[in-house]
Each structure stands twice: as structure tokens, then as C-alpha cells.
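Please review the protein record below. Tell me whether the encoded fold seems credible here:
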Amino acid sequence: MNEVYESALMKARKLAALAAAGVGGERANALEMLERHLRRHRLSLDDLRTDDRKRRVLECFDVKRKPMVNADLAALGVQCLAYVLNEPVKCHTGNKAFPWVSGKGRKAKPYAYGSVLIADLTDMEEEDWRACFGHFMPDFLATQKAMKAALKKCLSGFVHQHQIFRDTREGEEGPMLSEEELEALAAAMGQAQGSKWKRPAGRLVQSDFLLGA
């Protein structure tokens, strides 16, 4: 690469950084200057990409509590990653042992397993993922807990209704979901309704430029 190209590329990256940090008219002016500069030097946004992504291990659980294996939380993590990157996601999910003393005596273990997501991300992309996942995780766990309780109650009611056990008195009915329990379930499922995570204003990533954000 010649010096002219390197100089033009460096200026383009500075303009992109100004656009990412700016707000309102400042951001609009920086984007306009960036577009003109790219056309003048026959550059594209792909030329601005830097290979600063590193392999990251993202914890798909509440890091303030004991690590837990939850495939649904891992799936939520993948969805949050796709939302943050605004592009097809290449990642892996699995379980990893984390330092955590559980149990007592001889049965005590110095670790506990938790669900993780492995992906190549920049520092900012990782930070945005953690903010996005942390925003939705509490409501997701509350919904999951309410649905499990409702499912258990439905199973119990089905077993009693069809008398799938011994020594049942004729006409006995099992416990079914009450109106209060149904309302609690609906409230838990709708708790995150309209609660959309947004990247902090003024912080744009490369994909925002590509999408014309």
C-alpha cells in the first residue's frame, strides 16, 4: 500500500470516529464529509474495517450469582448478539466451568458450570452485548419461572382430571390454574413488552454506517 492510500484511509477512519461520537448536526456533517472523502479516494466502508476482533467468552447467566446451565438463556444470548451486530452471527454455545465453591466437606466443588457464548467481537461489541443481554435477562427469567410453574400446575390438573393415579375417588378434580395465576403468567410474559434495548446515543459501530443509521 502506498503513502497516499494510507493517508486517505487514516483520514477516513478519523471522520468515521467523529461521526460515531457526534450527535445531531455534528454527526450529520461528519457523515457527509466521510461520504465525500470516500468517493474522492474511491474507498468503501469495508476498507475502514480493522481486524481488532478477538475471541470472547460471554457468560449467559447472572454473573453476580452462581453460574447456571440454561440453554434458553444461551439462545437469548445469540439473539442479543444478532441484534447488537446487525449482521449474520457466527458463534458457538456451550458450558464452561467457573470458579465457585459449592457444597460442603468432601463433596465441596471449587467450580460450577454455566452456559456460555463464544464469538469474535471488538471491545465495544462485547460491551454492547453485555448491556443488551443484561437488559433482557431478568424479564426473561421471570417469564421462564412463571411458565414452568404454570406447566407444573397444568400437568397436575391433567393427571387429576383423567385420574392417572391409584385410589382416586370418583368425581375428584385436581387443582387447575386460578384466575390470579393466569393473570400472573400473563403479566410475566408481558413484562418486557415494549422494553427495547438501544445502544447509547452517539455510539455507533461499523454496521451502523453500513445500514445508514
